[in-house]
Automatic annotation (TrEMBL):
Lipid bilayer topology: Multi-pass membrane protein
Subcellular location: Membrane
Name of this chain's protein: Lysoplasmalogenase
Protein family membership: Belongs to the TMEM86 family.
First-listed, main subcellular location of the protein, grouped into a coarse class: membrane
UniProt entry keywords in alphabetical sequence: Membrane, Transmembrane, Transmembrane helix
Ranges annotated as spanning the membrane: 12-27, 33-52, 59-77, 83-100, 112-130
Length: 218
């Protein structure tokens, strides 16, 4: 990466990481609810800025919108599970729009089977964990996001994996709403899985867009 790019763009990733790590360790600190909510939202908000600054075209706008809506969801969910879920539902629709516009040209049977499993299995597990039809409806969008990410032309072991981590983090959230007791696992694992997934998605999409732009210029 050129020195100018390092100076101008990597700080957004560093700021995102700093905010995410700070929230994880300060979330039980009595520094004030509003400040913690803003700190939580900042992690993915900085990823949104990064994608818009480093990406190009409609794809950059869609991944930036996805991250921005997710950041709103991160903050809203601290006040209302329904409001946060609505923001994330919209973020999944934006992500699906991006992935469907960029399908992978060649896929194997096993890859297609996994995509179907994500699409159908995600809402099923959401229902098993929560016994809540609203959560299950959200799970349809969540599974659609993960399935289309896996079948998109973006790096599968960054964007696809990031989407799967997102799904797992939400499953841990929903496990706290129903009969399944996972002890302290959700408390410690939800945020790292979620943020790590979003980081992989944002950087994986931008990496692809930058590579394609370089090929066009070449």
């Amino acid at each position: 990466m050129p020195k100018r790019a390092l100076v101008e763009h990597r700080p957004w990733l560093l700021a995102s990481l700093a905010a995410a790590i700070a929230f994880y360790f300060l979330r039980d600190n009595p520094i004030g609810g509003l400040w913690l909510i803003l700190l939580k939202g900042a992690g993915v908000a900085f990823l949104a800025v990064y994608t818009l600054r480093r990406g190009h075209g409609v794809a950059a706008l869609l991944i930036g919108l996805t991250m921005a809506l997710s950041s709103i969801g991160d903050m809203a969910i601290e006040l209302s599970l329904e409001a946060g879920g609505a923001a994330f539902f919209l973020s999944h629709l934006a992500a699906m729009s991006l992935y469907l516009k960029h399908p992978r040209q060649h896929t194997t049977g096993s890859q297609k089977m996994l995509a179907v499993a994500l699409l159908l299995g995600t809402p099923l597990v959401c229902w098993m964990l929560s016994h809540n039809w609203q959560v299950t409806l959200y799970g349809l969008a969540l599974g659609g996001m993960a399935s289309t990410a896996w079948m998109s032309r973006f790096p599968r072991y960054r964007v696809g994996l990031g989407a799967v981590l997102f799904v797992i983090s939400d499953w841990l959230i929903f496990s706290e709403l129903g009969p399944v007791d996972l002890g302290d696992i959700p408390q410690y694992a939800i945020w790292p899985l979620y943020y790590g997934g979003q980081f992989l998605i944002a950087t994986g999409v931008v990496q692809t867009l930058r590579h394609e732009l370089a090929e066009e210029d070449g």
